[in-house]
Structures are given as structure tokens and as C-alpha cells.
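hey team, just a heads up i'm posting the complex here instead of the shared drive bc the drive is being weird again. everything in one block, sequence lines first with there labels, then the predicted structure for the whole assembly after. its two chains so it's a bit long, scroll down
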Amino acid sequence: MKFVIYWKTALLGFRQVANYRTEVWFQIIQRLLVLGGIVLLWSVIGKSYDTGMSFSQLISYFLIANGVRELTDGQYGKFGSKTIDDIKSGAVSSVLLQPTNTVLFLFFKNLGTRGVSIIFSIINIIIGFALIPRVSILIYLFFLISIITATIISYAQSTMVGSVAFWITEGKGIKNVVNHVTRIFSGALIPLTFFPDSYQKFVILNPFASYGFLPATITQSQTVSLSILTQVLFSIFWAGLFLNLSNIMWKRGIKHYEAIGY
Amino acid sequence: MKLLDIKQGIKIRWKILASSSMFSFKESLAYTMNNYGNFLSMMVYMLMYLVFLDVLFGRVKTIAGYNYSEMLFFTLIVQINYYLTFVFSLTSIDQLDVSINTGELDLWLSKPVPALWYVTFRKINLGDLIFSAIPATIPLIVMLSGKWNLLNISLGGVLAGFVCIILGQIIIHCFQFIISLTAFFTGEGKNARNMAMEIISFGDSVPFEGYPSALKVVGFTLIPNLVHTALSVSFILGKSVNYSFLLYVLLLTLVFLWLKTKLWKFALSHYSSASS
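-- predicted structure starts here --
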């Protein structure tokens, strides 16, 4: 019964956004441009350097990495941004009074408004899969696990970023800082294997690698290697840690919350 | 009589420009936390981009014929252009959309002020320029400090590049403005604006010489995103020396200014107020 409420909230958000059809098209073109920019850069780099991947593999890597990053909201962290707005404006007060989990409710509310991005990202991922040789069921399973952990990490990251608004009203700067860091360390702009060998292993195991590098690398592999298994285990570890930290931060933050007129 | 009209026209435009800048500056002083937030964001963006370049050039020797020092300089011009757009154009265009949505635009249309001039320059973020943009560029300038002698810079190239930056900024402003006018017809313009911003910064990691010919044609005609950064850097670093191309850029600027005025009038004729 409770989940139906969250689901309906998401659907309502999607319907609201879908009403502005022209805007939906602009949004799709914008996403295509972001992806096009990365493909253009790497096609130029590919002319003077052997990336170790064929052109279709390279395109597939970036389609999947950016697709997953978009799907899980790791790209723009819109959930965090919206939470900051809701806390700043006091709109979160009405959600706090509801018999629902506040963070989950806000998450699903935001999820619906990202409907177009989600559909677009799924199309990217499907095209990315079509460009590489057929992979085994086990690879699909690991890919699915990486998507789940990436979603949890993104959800927790946005909750923590949003919670900052309980202490400082202008938290958008922090949100942008996190987005800039994740852009590089997710591997969505540059494969993490490009990092110097001396610290590449540590970079590959960073929590944001789950947004792009990990799922994209899984799909490029024909078998589940020890390296992939380690990365997936680390991803599960980060998801658990981030989720707990975000819960603590939200609970502490809410004690600081004051609102007038509700 | 006509000369007097022109004088008055210039006077009122100058007044709008000066008071918009002053008001925006005072506003930025009032919201200091915004300045810290913007500064932090710009600084981290800069640092992350430098990490990206460093990692990339750890494996790659050149990108489209540009070595590490040249790419650092390219990034400097990208950043300068971004800040110029952000300070002089973007916020005013953002506010136009809100004005159309809320009906606030009615107020400015009914006043004896040049409306197009006002909506173009209503917010000039000098505070962001001073408190965020300039300090955030320091790491890049520090990294470039020992490398100036490695760059092939000539006076002619710098002048041509400077002209390209100024004219390119006018062109991309007009382009963004024209796209944002869709808010008159759709009632909402956020994604249109985001798309326009994405178009003008498309391929801002790729030097002019790396673009395929088809994209070069598009980037110099319908979607003019190559003038302000790619072409200007190419001139400054002596990669392009065909200065006659500047005449074409000037013509393109005039065309976009004309289009901006015409389409503004067209959009106004379809404006239905939301305030009453």
C-alpha cells in the first residue's frame, strides 16, 4: 500500500513534466549534445593514441557509462538539488507531516520529473549493449548489481548533499562541487584506466566509479575477472556505508529544521 | 531633433547598464554565502578539469595537434568565455524566462525604457566575476606561468583572437537569447536555455583543428559555437592565420544581432500576459 503512494507520486511528477512537450525535446537534444561532445573528444584522441579499444567499443563504453550515470541521477544530482530547494523554501514541512518516509517520498517525487532522462539513458544503455559482442548472463547479472549499488550510492549522496541545507541555506555550491568530482571519478569523461598506474587501483575502487566506469567495464568484459569481482564488492560496501551515513546526516539535520507558518 | 533622440537613447541605455551592474553587485554582496558556494564550485571544477588534462596527457602527446601547454591555454580561453557568458548574458536570459512566466515582463513593456536593452542587461554579475571567476582561474594561471614561452603567440594573432572572443560572445548571446524566446510560445524555457548553453559549449575540450569539416560549417553558420573559443585560440596560437575570416565573423555578428531584434519583436507580438 505504502509503495503505491511513492509510485503514484513518481507518475504525477512525470505527467507534470511531460505536459511541456517542447521542453522534453529540448531536454533530449541537450542530452545528445553532452554525449556528442564526449564522443567528439574521444574520436579526436583516438586518432593520435591507441586507447586499446575499437571505435565501437569506445562509443559503447561512453554510452553505457553516461547512460548509467544519468539513469542513477549521478550526473546532475537533481534529487539533492531539489531537496535543498524544498528545505530552503520550507516545502519539506508538508512532507514531514505525512505518514510516509520523507526522504523516499522526495526521492520518488523527483524520480518522476526525471522520466525523460531515464528513458533517454535506457536507450543509451541499449545502444551501448548493441555495439559490443553478446555477453553472458553472469555479466548481465553483475551489470544489474552495479546499477543497483550505483542507485543506492547516488540516492545516499543526494540525501547527504540535500541535508547540508539544514545547516547552511545555500547548499547548491556543495552540490556542484560533488558533481564536478563525480564527473571525473565516475569514469564518464575519461576511463579510469587512464590514471597513472601508481594509483590507478585506488581510483578504480572509489565510490563514484559505480556511476560509470564499473558498469561500462563489466559490459566490455567477456568473463567475470577477480578485478571486476573486487570492484563490485567495493561498490556494495560503499552503497552500505553511504546509506548509513546519509541516514545519520538526515536525522541530525532534521533536528536543526525550523519552519514558520506550517 | 534626431540627434537629440539618439543622445537620449544612449543616455538611458547607459543608465540601465550602470544601475543593473550596481544593483547586481550590491545583491551579490548581500548574499555572501552564494559567493562562497559559486567560488567553491568554480574552483573545484577548474581543479577537476586540470586533473582530467593531466591524466589525459599522461598517455596522450597531443590532441588535434595541441600539446599540453597549448591545451592549458585553450582551457584558459574556454574558462574566460564561460565567465563572460555567465556574467554578462546567462543570468539576464534566465530572468527573461521567469518574467514571461510570472507576467513581470508587462511592467517593463509598459515603462518608457528600451525593453530589449533592459532584458539583455538587467543583471550583470560583476560580483561573481570578482569573487568567484577570477580567483577560480588562479590555479590555471599558475600552471601556465612557466609555459608562456612554449606558446607560439604573435601580436596579430592576439588581436585577431581578442576580436573573435568579443564578437563570438555577442553571437552566442544572440543565439541563446533567440532560443530563450521560445518561452513566449511554450510558457516554459528552462530546458531550452540549458540546451542553448550546451550548444554553445559543445566540444569545448576540442580545439578548432579537431572538428570534422561538416561540424565546422555548422559551427560557423546556423549554430555559431566555434568563434568565441575554438577560432580565437587558433588565431592566438598561430594555428590559423587567415585573418580575412574576421570579416566573415563580423558579418555573422551583424546577422545575429539583426535576427535577435527581429525575433524579439515577433515574439512580443505573440505575447499574452500572465499577470492579469
